[in-house]
């Protein structure tokens, strides 16, 4: 038996200098899957609902929370994003404080209307 020729670059073996050494491929998992993003409209709905609470029934903020909450829910159903709980929280806060704000304005207008009506019924001015 003949010995294989001597390789000056690494011992005995193949004499082809262009042959690549064997490479071991390790296929590890790519890490945990990324969680879906939160829907921006849901976050906005919740923030507007909280601002409506802080402003004690700011109707403008509450209506914004309601609108953004409904849009967020439809987007979440369509895209599968996260944030359904925030959208629901914004909707609940929005509806509650829009209703409280509406009741407040009805009471205020009713009190002032009754005061003006009683002044008109009394027959004139008091000065």
From TrEMBL:
UniProt entry keywords in alphabetical sequence: Membrane, Transmembrane, Transmembrane helix
DUF4190 domain mapped to chain residues: 41-103
Highest rank taxon of the organism: Bacteria
Pfam families: DUF4190
Sequence intervals crossing the membrane: 42-68, 88-117
Protein name: DUF4190 domain-containing protein
């Amino acid at each position: 038996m003949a010995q294989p020729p001597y390789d000056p670059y690494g011992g005995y073996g193949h004499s082809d200098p262009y042959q690549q050494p064997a490479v071991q491929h390790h296929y590890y998992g790519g890490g945990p899957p990324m969680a879906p993003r939160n829907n921006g409209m849901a976050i906005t709905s919740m923030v507007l609902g909280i601002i409506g609470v802080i402003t004690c029934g700011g109707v403008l903020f509450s209506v914004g929370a309601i609108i953004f909450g409904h849009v967020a829910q439809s987007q979440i159903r369509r895209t599968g994003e996260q944030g359904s709980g925030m959208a629901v929280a914004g909707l609940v806060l929005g509806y509650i404080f829009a209703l409280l704000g509406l009741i407040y304005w009805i009471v205020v207008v009713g009190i002032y209307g009754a005061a003006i009506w009683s002044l008109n019924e009394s027959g004139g001015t008091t000065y």
